[in-house]
Amino acid sequence: MEGVVRVEGARLPYRSEGSGPPMLVLGSPTFYARALPAALREDLELIFVELRHFVPIEDGFDSSKIDFDLYAEDIEALRQAAGIERPIVLGTSMHGTIAREYGARYPQHVRGIVDLNSWPTSAPKTPTQDEFWAADASPERRAQHEVNLATRPNPDPVTTGAEWVLSYVARGAWYWYDASFDCTPLWAGVEPNLPVFRQLGGVEFTAADLPTFLGLGRYDYVIPYTWWQSYLPRYRQLTYKLYEQSGHLPFVEQPEEFAADIAAWA
After folding, report:
1. What is the C-alpha to C-alpha distance for residues 21 and 1, in angstroms, rounded to an integer?
2. Which residues of 6-28 are buried (b: 16+ CB within 10 A; e: fewer)?
3. Helix axis angle, 68-82 relative to 94-105, nearest 10°?
4. What is the DSSP letter of 21?
5. What is the mean pLDDT of each run of 10 residues along the chain (266 residues)?
6. Phi and psi at residue 70, in whole multiples of 5°?
């Protein structure tokens, strides 16, 4: 199954792989089709949906309209176009926040949420990223971080999607359990539309009353797992797992364990 959905100001492609209960995967289909473990396709139909910060925005579109309401409408349009009834919705990082926001607005159309290493809120948090890094990162990780910065392109300031990807790769010690991991191949051919992504603005914590699998990486220094501790009690239907050998993307660093966890939860 594949297609393109016309929404206000953009065209959003989608495609599916695998068989089983449907799961919408939010973000770049190119990136997530590479990154998610193949074993997931044995238990679930993965519908990869492109969001508007990975596609060109049409001339004349008023970018001030971009907010979580608009993103939820986009995802609902994709769900309807693909003819999917009550999918699980998976999102990582900001896409996890988007998944939560969609579930809160359309709970009747969502079976459950898989939320991975997302921002719980943009409000000030303790410890900060820098404080968590200073207190937690080992000397070996700090040394590898300096090597990465010295040997990988690291633009400053970051003004384009391509520069954002380079910065992401250069700061790998903050994103990966394996501090030397070079994730460049995952990003090949993917360039975020950075102004659109940044237009989403502030995040307030939202948790729909839906079954939720929250997965966090122990060695994620971008979204410290400690940020989530005060929010866990707010869920009524939560399955929580801390991946002890992962950073920002547990399904890349612990793929077999992650696939088994999601298949069992689903």
Report:
1. 14
2. ebebbebbbbbbbeebbbbbbbb
3. 70
4. S
5. 94 97 97 98 97 92 91 97 96 96 97 97 93 98 98 96 97 98 98 89 86 98 97 96 98 98 97
6. -65, -40
